[in-house]
Amino acid sequence: MTAQVLELVGSNCSQDVFKAHPSGLLRCGPPPDVTFRRHLGSVHVHVEWSQEDVEVVRSLCVRHKAAGGGQWKEACCGSASECQVSNVNTSEAYQVQVRCETSDKCSQCPWSEVFPLAPELTALPVLVRVDEQQMATMTGQRTLSLTWMLPGAVLPEGYRVCVAKASGESENHVTSVRPHVTLVLSSSSFHVDVSAFNNASESPAVRITVPPRAAGHGMLNVSVHSNASFTISWEDDLVSWSVCFCMEWSSEGRPVAYKSFYEDTNNFWTVSEITERLEAYRRYHVWLHVRPQRPPCNLKRVNNSEVTYASAPFYFLEGSPLSAPANVSVVNVTLSSVALCWSSIPQEELRGFLLGYVIHYVGNQQQETNVSVPAHVHNYTLEGLQRGTVYKIQVSGVTRAGAGVRSAARVIRTHELGSLSLTVVFIVSGLTVVVLTVAFFLMKSKAKVAFWPNIPTPEKSIVLQKLNVPSEMLLDETMDALKVEEFETSSLLIVEVGAADPVDAPAALLPADQQRADIQRLPAAASGAYTSMAAVQQLMMSMQRTPPKSSDDGRVTGGKPGMDYVTQFLWSLTAAHERKPTCSDRV
User: Shortest CA distance to 264 belongs to which of 286, 288, 306, 295?
Assistant: First the structure.
């Protein structure tokens, strides 16, 4: 085929001639729609061809290189719409082009535009805050606020939040460009998945399960007909403002079942031939949700679409509790009473609605007595017991099927001695002994000073009378040295004698005309040391200035008139020391 092309622009004319075989003039592409999906180090390419090319394109070719530069790497796939590129770096951005593979139907396959390929998102979003609050304006609805962050340096284009009911009835996707979302939900159970995405990948999703809540302003009654059928009824006339309802029921550890229905006349609904049969002794919960939209009543969207009217627990068949109340303890015992406390029975062990507790107790050779208390009470005081009597006490839970297993027996004896136990008496006695001991040692050092002035006539005291009697005890015990220190109280002169060199004797205590020379003339014992009585005598001479004299019978004479009793006592000691003992002396 020969083609001649003429072009006239103004007064200028141009001409071009070319020759080619018709098979070489067929051109396909490039494709108008290309999508990429990165996952685990590979890139999945999906292509949509135009209507003219979709019939003639037989295969697809893809080439890529790093966004920062490098050589193109090309690969062709046997499919016209799908191609897989492997062994790419997940954390690196790429540039990608696609085209068809040349054939007799597509002799010309130009490359497409360059598509930027973002790095693969592999990090899991981290939930920073989960805040659930009951709405004040609408009972039966709550707000769920989620805040999260994506670790790493790769920034996504946005975040995808998938909200689905745990029953599987419906799910919706919410897209957000910020890592925060607030949902308005009913009291049903929900699954919320949060993931990040860009033009080529989506990160793993973090899931939060929102548990159901026993909320709502209404009341539900449940009537169980069999293990496959039951009826719920409500009091309020809900059909006056809504005709679309949804009933959900489940048990702990079991999937949630649901049934949406339309009702505009009655205030009850019966479920028949349920798939999963009800089990005996297992607690179930049922919820009734009200939907504002008109028929059909199927849930169109999850966020802010329904309100929980009420919820209620129920049993297909009840049984007595399998276990007893835990931690049964005796907290107080008196002459005629015993105070008890205990913990609740685990929910899975009740097997029915707990109506209350029964306290079983029996004394010596007595019949057993039972006391019933409400289900919310966990402590009780048994009164009217006999003093000094041994009692065996047990506690059990009660359902409609009867009393359950009893707790281990607690054996106690009421008191015999009074309201105070022996332990309290021992503690008080011990504290009293400690206080008296401390008081004794504190007062011991001051007893002499405190009580001596209260003696009306010291000269008649037993101590002075014994000292005045001739004694066989010698008062000339030798000491190595003397050192006298004195201090005064209100009525006593206390003299302490210690060891010191005679030269160091306090001269200030001697009269002014008797200093160092008089000290050297003090009488001394054979060992050369001053005696204690010589020191006392010297002190008295210093105080009275007149040397004392002693009579033959040991009485003190001389001295100043009006000498007080203490001074006379000290003079008597010196006189007894100077007088030689006789055989008639006695102690």
Answer: 295
